[in-house]
Design goal:
Elements lengths: L13 H11 L15 H11 L4 H14 L3 H6 L2 H8 L6 H16 L6 H4 L7 H12 L8 H10 L10 H9 L5 H5 L1 H14 L18 H5 L16 E11 L3 E6 L10 E2 L12 H5 L10 E10 L4 E11 L8 E5 H7 L2 H13 L1
Parallel strand pairs: 1-5
Antiparallel strand pairs: 2-3, 2-6, 4-5
Helix pairs in contact: 1-12, 2-3, 2-8, 8-12, 9-10, 9-12
Amino acid sequence: MPLPIPLPVPLPSGAELLAWYDRHRRTLPFRRSDGGRPDPYRVWLSEVMLQQTTVAAVGPRFERFLARFPDVAALAAAPEAAVMEEWAGLGYYARARNLHACAKAVTAMGGFPRTAGALRDLPGIGAYTAAAVAAIAFDEPVVPADGNVERVVARLLAEETPLPAAKPRLAAAAGGFMADAAARARPGDFAQALFDLGATICTPRTPACALCPWRGECLAQRRGIQAELPRKSPKRARPLRHGAHFLLTDAEGRVLLRRRPPRGLLGGMLELPGTEWRAAPWGEAEALAHAPVPGPAWRRVPGVARHGFTHFELEMVLYAAALPRLEPPEGMEMRPLAEAGAALPTVMRRLLELAAVRA
């Protein structure tokens, strides 16, 4: 195995990257185009949304979220259920709960702290998000190391230690950019320049090295191994779990929904009532014992709905029924189907898709 790159390491010029960024920076809904100081609320919100979610998916949702919660005080004052429903479809729902808790803490202290160290004390803010907000919103000379930055640095230094073991080394090496006078003078722009370089030039596959402002100083490019880096440790196979859920509608086109417990996986989100998710498949009689309402003629919808979580794969069967009118049981509610679809997490939308396609 190659020896790890010793630290500190020589890094290319920050001025070269900033000159490239000034010409080619992306136009994104959460970036200011007028040269003014970035709003820390918008920076923080965008960074949280972008975790585990693509820029293309975040763009329209970011604007919609701002329309409903235009500032941190509005977000803090909102009911948690409203925040969770607005987050529906973005995944990793603990982010929404932490976002709400963080908004309350920031409002109570009168505004966002201005340093990465103080930001890390807020709910749900880790090292990366704290550094990103501190650099972009407050020009603190720190370098946030997301996946784009890790990839750029791994290639610059031809670091062949696989991820995730290489993460601390890559973050430490990235921090060395702040010794560069040009980078230190514009830490917010420099951080975003690194993001843009990784997203548009130093991409995971077939990087466009001929267009890179650092192509002459990239060790991986010199050795012809840039497309192989960063290396990653093999992923473990995810276990398969099984669930059964129930789609009950009435004559008005409403659907029966249940809110999940406030903590845990999908905490606080709406769902179609159903069983727990377990290793063994559910037999029909066993599943129907968990039906939310006795009496309807439940029919099994052909096929299964599949969804992948970080730590497991899920297969769900669906039973459907209709009643002329229904008073929801305690702890449940009825909503129009279109409204329900917008408020449900993606895993539950898979069931609605199954019902629509196979009904």
